[in-house]
Amino acid sequence: MRPTRTVLTVAATALLPALLLAGPAVAAGPASPSPAVAPAGVPAVPASSVGDMSDDDLRVAILRILADEDSGRRVIREANEALDNGTTEAMRSFLETGYPLAQAEDDQVAPFRILADPDSGRRVTNEINALLDSGTPQEIRQWLETGYRLAQAEDDRVALFRILARPGISDALRAAVTEAIEGTPEEMRHFLEYGQYEIDG
Q1: Where are the domains of the chain?
Q2: Which are the contacts of 171, defined by CB distance < 8 A and separation ≥ 6?
Q3: Which of 22, 147, 161, 171 has the most beta carbons within 10 angstroms of its beta carbon?
Q4: What's the CA gap between 54 and 58, in Å, rounded?
Q5: CA max distance for the chain
Q6: CA neighbours within 13 Å on the CB side: how many for 130?
Q7: Whole-structure pTM over 0.70, yes or no?
Q8: Residue ranges in the chain assigned as alpha helix (H)
Q9: InterPro entries recorded for this chain (predicted)?
Q10: Residue pLDDT, tens place only, 40-88
């Protein structure tokens, strides 16, 4: 890792609580992309479609965004504000422009949150650093949607093999680790976070 990147990572770790708790003006960092350009992967609704939606349809579309477990803090906050306002104009404005901008801001914070996690592995860290060096907002969004899962799975598989290499590992733990390695990325992550601690040895 280059010295400048090390400094950035340390600074990100120190400033992460402020970034997460700050209002939009502080947390935004670089200027958000133009409202006309939605980040890649964001299921932005075409303006013509939103204009034809009834109030109930607009509300359902926003509720679906809130139900998405990957929705970030600003997206959730602004989606709730649009619903609380309840007017057709507020809900349409959020879907047409507010949502892509809020998603872009959340995407700026997410890489630093991942870097600040002491459990982030080598591949995850390397790919985030590469994105922060030269990645576009669209590339960051795509990585968060697909690349992160793949990088995390590779790091988790390495972590599982390290457990297998421990001296004196019990047969029960060895069998559980072997099963986890053959499982899905989500199963490997769950085992590392919870499963391994439920097995004696």
Answers
A1: 25-108, 117-201
A2: 201
A3: 147
A4: 6
A5: 66
A6: 11
A7: no
A8: 3-21, 24-27, 47-52, 55-67, 73-85, 88-93, 99-116, 122-134, 137-142, 148-164, 171-181, 185-193
A9: DUF312_ALF
A10: 344 445 554 776 788 899 999 999 999 988 888 999 999 999 999 989 9
